[in-house]
Amino acid sequence: MSFTRIARRTLAERGADYAVVRKLVDAALTVISAAGTTGRPRVSDIVAAAGLSNDAFYRHFPSKDALVAALLEDGAERLTGCVAHPMAKEADPRARVRRWVAAILPQAEERTAAATLAVLWKAVGPGLG
Question: Is 70:63 a contact under the CB 8 Å cutoff?
Answer without folding.
Answer: no
